[in-house]
Design a protein that fits this description.
single chain, about 290 residues, alpha+beta, Sortase, Chain: A, two-stranded antiparallel ribbon, elongated
Length: about 290
């Protein structure tokens, strides 16, 4: 097939519409084709340029395809830049501008079980009865936080990554469940890994909802078939632990990449004791 385009003196001056057709990939009208394009076919059958594959020589779709590629490239480039900003901007910001601790505030003065939230914690010898042995409790060490649905086994390893890849890590060289001489420190990822979010795994084994815990919320630790109950009395955002007098310290990251952490401090309590009990005869509180 041979295609001839009729020569005209004023092509560049009067035929800009044809150029627009080519750039946009649109199909011109038959009248325009008959006037400006002469198609000679080897066969006697009439050739419809709109259905012919040869029309792409005059009105190629590569412009449309190129535009689509540019749009896709721009979209993915923008998404990549946004993800990089989310990952590294917080880390850079807090490196340049260190953050002061931001305490968690509450309107509650205290609870019947734990007492006042403002009472200073100390690691002086505390006489607390040992929780009763319960054969129905699971083996091993477990962490349960009813408020946020955490229910996971405490993992121990020399390096944190090995345990944090699965759930909650108990920091070595610190307290054990029920210890009141030094705090037990538990850490976990907040966002974790992609496979955590393919199911409800994240809810039971991560600290994603740890920032929602408030003073007065309870934390349970099971160890050796005994259940220890802790009550959160304070919390903060910061870069370091500031209260090592707590019996239990929970912490997780605030962002994917930043030194800021969410901390929650808890004290070991006896769930059967009412610290705000008032002696009816004397009218004196037992706090």
């Amino acid at each position: 097939m041979i295609i001839h385009i009729k020569k005209q003196e004023k092509l560049l001056r009067t035929r800009m519409s044809g150029i627009r057709f080519c750039l946009s990939g649109a199909i011109p009208s038959n009248a325009y084709i008959n006037e400006h394009i002469n198609i000679v076919s080897n066969s006697n059958e009439p050739l419809d340029i709109k259905k012919s594959r040869y029309r792409h020589r005059f009105f190629p779709l590569r412009f449309q395809r190129l535009t689509l590629k540019v749009l896709l490239f721009s979209f993915f480039t923008t998404c990549s830049i946004a993800i990089l900003l989310l990952l590294f901007v917080p880390a850079a910001y807090y490196t340049l501008f260190p953050s002061d601790p931001v305490p968690v505030k509450t309107d509650e003065a205290g609870t019947p079980q734990g007492g006042s939230f403002t009472t200073p914690q100390t690691h002086a010898k505390k006489e607390r009865p040992l929780p009763p042995y319960d054969a129905t409790l699971p083996d091993g060490n477990w962490l349960i936080i009813p408020r946020i649905g955490v229910q996971t086994e405490l993992l121990e390893s020399a390096t944190p990554d090995e345990s944090l890849a699965k759930g909650v890590w108990r920091v070595p060289d610190f307290g054990l469940p029920g210890d009141t001489t030094k705090p037990m420190i538990l850490a976990a990822h907040r966002f974790g890994y992609k496979w955590w979010w393919n199911s409800s795994y994240w809810r039971y084994h991560s600290f994603y909802l740890l920032p929602t815990l408030q003073p007065g919320d309870l934390v349970e630790v099971i160890s050796n078939k005994r259940k220890y109950t802790y009550e959160i009395y304070a919390g903060e955002q910061g870069e370091q632990i500031t209260d090592y007098n707590a019996d239990l310290i929970l912490y997780t990251c605030k962002f994917l990449q930043s030194p800021i952490r969410h901390f929650r401090y808890a004290r070991l309590i006896d769930p059967n004791t009412n610290t705000q009990h008032v002696d009816v005869k004397s009218g004196i509180s037992s706090i």
